[in-house]
Amino acid sequence: MLTKLSNSKFLIPAMVALIILAAGTGFYISLKQSQNQLVQNNELRGLFWPNPKQIKNFSAKDHNGNAFELSNISGKWSFIFFGYTNCPDICPITMSVMANVYQHLANYYENIQIIFVTVDPERDTTEKLSSYISFFDQDFVGLSGEPTIENSLTRQIGIPYYYNMKKENNNYLVDHSASIFVIDPKTRLIAKLSPPHQPEKIIEQFKNIKRFIDEKD
Amino acid sequence: MKKINGLIFIFIIFLNASIVLAEDISGIDISHLWISEAPPTVSVLVAYVTLKNNTTKTASLVSVSSPLFSSIEIHRSIVKDEVASMERHLSLTIPAKSTIKLLPGDYHLMLFNPKTPLEIGDKPTLTFTFSNGVKILVKAQVKKRKYRKH
Q1: What ipTM describes this predicted complex?
Q2: Which range of residues forms the domain containing residue B82?
Q3: Paired residues of A189 in beta bridges
Q4: Cα–Cα distances in Å, from A122 out to A166, A172, B112?
Q5: Cross-chain CB nearest to B79 (options A100, A178, A199)
Q6: CATH: 3.20.20.70, 3.40.30.10, 2.30.30.90, 3.40.980.10. Which one for A53-216?
Q7: What confidence category does residue B26 fall into, taking pLDDT thresholds of 50, 70 and 90?
Q8: From CA B13, how far away is CA B31, in angstroms rounded?
Q9: Does A87 reach chain B within 8 Å, measured CB to CB?
């Protein structure tokens, strides 16, 4: 058989074809592997791992005037967004996206919580915040006066915010972080989700983060 | 009967001519003007709009006003290094034969201190003033934002 083949005029083309096929398969496998790695890295983008910050106790007031402390985030997955009610464009866009994310995730998980922290406590009173929060979703939590308290989430997470044109009039603007932060049920600051925000992207990112944490713990 | 038909014909011709004339005066189409529904207690609302300049000259929007608001400003949202901020623009240039769209997360109109809260279905009128003195009155629609619950 071998001698027959070696004599055959097809031997060289057959060997060439075999080499091309082998090289092609190898290339395809390595491409697939690198694609998988890339997908995995993308899915877990924004994760603070292996050293997530442990959130310390704090005592804030929620939009109903009730105490809101570390125990209120313990055992839950919390999504935290910082903004102010006089921000008419970026903040309601993010709040609407989070309302959509919440409606979806609440169908599957019981311990999801969306928290809005105002970086404009002077104008955003408890009453104002209460109406703002419930407009997007009755289950959302709003924290007013939070940035100024000891061990505030704003300080612990390290949120940048600064007033713009404040001296000129009462229509001043506040520049602030546009990211969404995720705290896990063990109250560890686990991830930062970067803008632009889309519900599908956040849901997918959350599921991957949760799967990763569930496997690690 | 023939006379009446003739009159109607002349009337239609006249009507068409006047519509064309009205368009020619400004040469700017303002469409898709909508205000996002917001919680009743907020002091600043937002409007988005499409501005089309049909002329061969650059147009410049210099002010937007309405008796319903204490003031209206042109702003642009900017997210840089994950920090959101807004910059105010004193005018908005619409190049000749082009369209500018004010959309969520980008250029928008800030409507300060509404006299009364606006609800879905309300149609307040805004006045757009251009640098050549042309004023255009447009009715806005109050609508829900994308991703909002129905």
Answers
A1: 0.79
A2: 27-143
A3: A53, A183
A4: 12, 11, 18
A5: A178
A6: 3.40.30.10
A7: confident
A8: 26
A9: yes
Is the Cβ pair B38, A135 closer than 8 Å?
yes
Q: What is the CATH number of the domain that holds B93?
A: 2.60.40.1890
Candidates B36, B41, B49, B75, partner chain A, best to mutate (most A CBs within 10 A): B41
Does the beta carbon of B146 lie under 8 angstroms from any beta carbon of chain A?
yes
pLDDT digits (tens, 9 = 90+) for B52-96: 999 999 999 999 999 999 999 999 999 999 999 999 999 999 999
Is B17 a domain residue?
no
Residues 41-100 of B with CB under 8 A from A: 41-46, 71, 75, 77, 79, 82-86
Considering the domain boundaries, does residue B58 fall inside one?
yes
